Amino acid sequence: MGFKALPADSIAMLDASHRRQEQRLDECLDAVQALTDGRAGQDQVATIARVLEFLRKQAARHVEDEEESVFPRLAARPDFSELLVALESEHREHETMIAELEDLFEAWADAVPPSRAVSVFASRFAEFSAHYRAHIAREDDELVPAMRRELTANELADISSEMISRRPKSSRWSRVGRGRKRRSL
Ligand SMILES: [Fe+2]
Ligand SMILES: [Fe+2]
Question: Ligand 1 centre from 84 Cα, in Å?
Answer without folding.
Answer: 9
